[in-house]
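From the methods appendix. Each design record in this collection lists the tokenized structure first, followed by the designed amino acid sequence. Records were kept in a plain field format so they could be parsed without special tools. The example shown here is representative of the layout used throughout.

RECORD:
FOLD TOKENS (183 positions):
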């Protein structure tokens, strides 16, 4: 499961991991959650816009779902259906969590919290409950200013949890992250 603040690059990172898994010959299922519109009950499913389906063809099952808040009530059934469908890997992307949106942890084997440089100082990070649920951290957009400081601050609170640095738009660090998640 990948979670983190909106704009952290979760969708781009998931698309890059799906592409890498397909390149390795795996079949990947992605379930991506987007915020539900209070007007239309739909969502702009931006995560699907970031995947080159010509490159991944039928080796990737991609399902976007619009939800309100952390309503993951149907997720166990979805996981069971996907698991029965013969997919090698299931990646779940959350809608974009804030400080107390942590329910995804109850549904996945590993929780990767995606952060980016400029998210705030260490006090802000310490109060963010989302950092507590991380099995590993992903510093995405690691080519942006402030990356080194962010990694140092994460090391102070990580308590031995892995920290992966990625630039999803360029594929940097994606192989290592995928290998860690699949281990």
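DESIGN:
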């Amino acid at each position: 499961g990948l979670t983190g603040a909106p704009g952290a690059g979760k969708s781009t990172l998931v698309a890059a991991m799906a592409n890498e898994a397909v390149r390795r010959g795996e079949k990947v299922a992605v379930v991506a959650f987007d915020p539900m519109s209070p007007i239309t009950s739909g969502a702009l499913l931006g995560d699907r816009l970031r995947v080159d389906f010509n490159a991944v063809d039928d080796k990737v099952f991609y399902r976007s779902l619009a939800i309100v808040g952390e309503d993951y009530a149907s997720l166990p059934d979805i996981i069971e259906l996907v698991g029965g469908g013969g997919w090698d890997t299931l990646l779940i992307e959350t809608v974009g969590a804030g400080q107390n949106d942590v329910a995804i942890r109850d549904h996945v084997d590993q929780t990767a919290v995606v952060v980016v440089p400029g998210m705030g100082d260490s006090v802000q990070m310490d109060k963010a409950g989302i950092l507590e649920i991380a099995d590993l951290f992903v510093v995405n957009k690691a080519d942006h200013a402030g990356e080194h400081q962010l990694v140092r601050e994460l090391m102070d609170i990580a308590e031995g949890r892995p920290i992966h640095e990625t630039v999803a738009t360029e594929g940097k660090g994606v192989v290592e992250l995928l290998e860690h998640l699949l281990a």
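APPENDIX NOTE: The chain is about 30% helix and 20% strand.
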